[in-house]
Amino acid sequence: MHDQSVSVGRYYDRAGALFLRFGRGRESGAIHRPVWAPGVSHLQDAVSFVNRQLLMCMREVRAVDVLDLGCGVGGTIAYLRARQKARYTGITLSRTQAEEAGRRLHPADGPDDASSKIIQGNFAVLDTHEVQAGSYDLVYAVESMVHLASVDTFFASAARYGRPDSTLIVIDDFQKRFPLEGSARYRRFQTYTWGWRVPSVVSYDELVSAARRHGYRLEEFRDWTVYVSAHGTRDYLLRVFVPFLKLGSRYSEWCRSMVGGDALKRLLLEEVVGYGFFRFSLTR
To answer: How far out from the chain centre does Cα 126 lie?
Structure first.
């Protein structure tokens, strides 16, 4: 687990700045994917779609203490904090992301705001003096669960931080089909998990079973695969350059990520990989 967390932290340290510079959510600090759900017609709405869903959940459960597992540069916390009063905590493995999140949430020329804090560390092994166990009404993880060595590790960690009857939101990839070993789809799946450093892309059943083992009950599931699988001009251009990016992937985290991202796009279209919203309640 330590080696995996170091690898993921290095990945975001090296590639994160490029994601922000060239990514579609660079203005808002959103590193997660745009979701083109029904009624969404503009890029900024697609980029903020995930944040809007989290805000609605937060208001529904009347969350006072909110924990972001894998907060990136704090874009989601900034979005929520501007719209709903609460105490926010974000955790990221990446030192550079933690520093950027600090600048976004606590600008030097802005008012002193103690409603949010960012912690650099591995939330699976974080000292509870930094993040108090059993103290959060809402815990969420956007595209971070799959980076852990196992989904059991993820749900055990989330359950440690949540209050009894708290809500957990997971928005992430899961495996919908299992291609034959050695097939082109199987190789694409391996390229995706290698390129994005995501060893825990598991099936819906495996994900829900792991959650149940750690005291969670699934309350709601939404399959958003079709809303993130559409190909655009950027995707076709990326495919043209993939052979060259593969050459650079041994030396560049960004090239490695681009190669993995191209494989993921194909897997989403083939529905080998899905993208979903999972809402759980902690039953203990």
So the answer is: 18
245-278 as b/e, with b when 16 or more CB fall inside 10 Å?
bbeebeebbbbbbbbbbbbbbbbbebebbbbbbb
* Residue 165 CA, distance from chain mean position: 23
Domains in the chain, please, with CATH?
2-173+198-229+274-282 (3.40.50.150)
Q: How far is it, in rounded angstroms, from Cα 11 to Cα 144?
A: 13
Q: What's the predicted TM-score (pTM) here?
A: 0.89
Nearest Cα residue to 131 out of 65, 183, 83: 65
Whether the CB-CB separation of 106 and 77 falls below 8 Å is answered with no
| Lowest model confidence (mean pLDDT) among 29-43, 148-162, 268-282 | 29-43
Distance linking the first and last C-alpha atoms of the chain: 26
